[in-house]
Amino acid sequence: MDEKTTTFVRDDSLSVDMPIDSDVFRVPPGYNAPQQVHITQGDHVGKGVIISWITPHEPGSSTVKYWAENSEFELKAHGFYLAYKYFNYTSGYIHHCTIHNLEFDTKYYYEVGIGNTTRQFWFKTPPPVGPNVPYTFGLIGDLGQTYNSNTTLTHYEKNPVKGQTILYVGDLSYADDFPYHDNTKWDTWGRFTERIAAYQPWIWTAGNHEIDFAPELGETRPFKPYTCRYHLPYTASNSTSPLWYSIKRASTYIIVLSSYSAFGKYTPQYKWLVKELPKVNRTETPWLIVLMHSPMYNSYVNHYMEGETVRVLYEKWFVEYKVDVVFAGHVHAYERSKRVSNIAYSIVNGLHNPINDQSAPVYITIGDGGNIEGLATAMTEPQPSYSAYREASFGHGILDIKNRTHAYFSWNRNQDGYAVVADSIWLYNRYWTHPEQTSLALFR
Ligand SMILES: [Fe+2]
């Protein structure tokens, strides 16, 4: 058998949050200076960007100045701001500004703030949507703000394969692990992640740590801090909620789902997904990727079978529409499945085991960003035959799309040197390649 459970177990003694006076949490200098700057895709195809930031003392301005590299021509986009209260916490002024109609494949500089306290950043728009466009995504989940979290971000930055956009599979700040869901942890997390999130889009997925439902504190609006702080282009895909939506980027079609919103038949998310999947044109975007927080295939003890109800409802569609990869987080470890499906069961026929299925996605759990809750080290034994590789270490993934048929996924564990990959697989596009394939595991 070729299932692999590595004996490598990461020392997670550093699973404590970095102290508040750490340099990664530093408040930028200057009165009311914009902080926690982050960007995400702002439309369906990548010509828009949503820029978000927080001013602590007064609203200031919600306007973004921006200009293309090698251009004298300065443009302005006007956004808006909001603020929220959570129990005994009051947020700063949270600005969101969407820039539309950017040129593809172009570097833009942008500036936020006013007076003497402006700050400049830059981003690069993706190439036009098309079938053979190479593009590289980073995969991070369950990051938190511990020393391990910082190592994960540093390894991502230092990876010789340069990610251009991060697919984030949920659980951001872990503020809710602290008394009264200490929302200052959302602020420190925003400052911690700015060093990457201000320069490349993070495609956000909501996790359980974003729910912040706390009736004992009088807080009954689920996802309040998350949705106030992170704005998403959900209306561009005809979604009615920022918790599920889709984007196209380069040669990919990315569907983001919410494990913690109603997903049963007749619910808004279900009805949206039913309409969404047939819209994916694999001639235009060969790579179909799904992000959700709770994994459908997970052989760790932690969160075992939590994704089962979603799997029962949605797995058959992932097979029917030949989803290439499903990325999830939640479990604080790494796991990669073989291409399997378990969709034959119909109450009485007894067909309830995963079987090899070349139309099925690979399921990758990458909830190993390094948060305060530590690693999930306990695994179900024996390793199920559908599970190809599992290891309880922190790390990040890189999905390096080469063309319409080939993509190379690698998982970098934090323990290793920057260039060392612990697990890797060539992914052959489910739509464009013959279903018979062999997995090449390079660099093992
Ligand atoms: Fe989670």
Automatic annotation (TrEMBL):
Catalytic activities: a phosphate monoester + H2O = an alcohol + phosphate
GO MF assignments: acid phosphatase activity; transition metal ion binding
Instruction: Extract the PROSITE patterns matched here.
Output: FN3
**Limits of the Fibronectin type-III domain:** 33-128
According to its UniProt entry, the protein's GO biological process terms are: cellular response to phosphate starvation
Its needed co-factors are:
Fe cation; Zn(2+)
UniProt keywords, alphabetically: Glycoprotein, Hydrolase, Iron, Metal-binding, Signal, Zinc
EC annotation?
3.1.3.2
Q: Name one GO cellular component term.
A: plant-type cell wall
Keyword Kinase set for record: no
The record's listing under InterPro entries reads: Calcineurin-like_PHP, FN3_dom, Metallo-depent_PP-like, MPP_PAP, PAPs-like, PAPs_C, PAPs_N, Purple_acid_Pase-like_N
Q: Which Gene3D superfamilies match?
A: 3.60.21.10, Purple acid phosphatase-like, N-terminal
UniProt xrefs under Pfam families: Metallophos, Metallophos_C, Pur_ac_phosph_N
Q: Which class of enzymes does this protein belong to?
A: hydrolase
Which family, according to UniProt? Belongs to the metallophosphoesterase superfamily. Purple acid phosphatase family.
Instruction: Report the protein name in the record.
Output: Purple acid phosphatase
